[in-house]
Amino acid sequence: MDFFELVNRRESVRGYLDKPVEREKIEKIIEAGRVAPSACNAQPWKFVVVNDKAIVSQVARKLYDPLISGINKFALTSPVFIVVVAESRNLASKMGKLVKKKDYTNIDIGGACENICLAATELGLGTCIMGWFKEKGIKNILSIPSNKEVTLVISLGYYEDKEPRKKVRKDIKEIMSYNNY
Ligand SMILES: Cc1cc2nc3c(=O)[nH]c(=O)nc-3n(C[C@H](O)[C@H](O)[C@H](O)COP(=O)(O)O)c2cc1C
Description:
Blueprint: H1 3-9, H2 23-34, E1 45-50, H3 53-63, E2 80-86, H4 91-100, H5 105-122, E3 126-130, H6 135-142, E4 149-157, H7 172-175
Antiparallel strand pairs: 1-2, 2-4, 3-4
Helix pairs in contact: 2-5, 3-6
Flavin mononucleotide binds near residues 11, 12, 72, 129 and 130.
């Protein structure tokens, strides 16, 4: 797929087929995250892949909240989750953070997650990045140390192939300018 077609084809997929995802594909997708850029090459991430059916369903119940207008109900159909944990930064980027007063951890993780979503799209799989979940519950299920942060969870799976939705985005004139704000 041409890159520009790929970025347009990627969309949040909120419903999956009951079909397992091959390990080979999962590893290719994580590899795309692994090579993402990060400030000072800190790579402040760990991707916990959840593909064991029993654990998947436990994690799904920490994403779906029936009390908040059924948010993330579709997670109950996802055969795989990639749980993204923020890891501590290397010395160079810790120094940079002190001097510049900027923490790039979430930015780095965002870039890696986009690589992951695009790789999945290329391989015919759907994803949805989720920021809404019960973090403590997920940490308990996956034995993630309590001092670490779960930044995002990405659902991953096969889905019914159809034309991508039309992207709802701000107009390019609103978000771009040349040589002056
Ligand atoms: C950081 C982040 C958190 C998100 N959290 C959720 C979520 O909890 N549930 C959900 O259904 N979608 C979530 N989304 C998906 C966005 O709603 C979606 O990317 C946006 O509406 C654009 O639609 P598209 O991804 O289909 O192009 C999240 C996206 C990002 C980047």
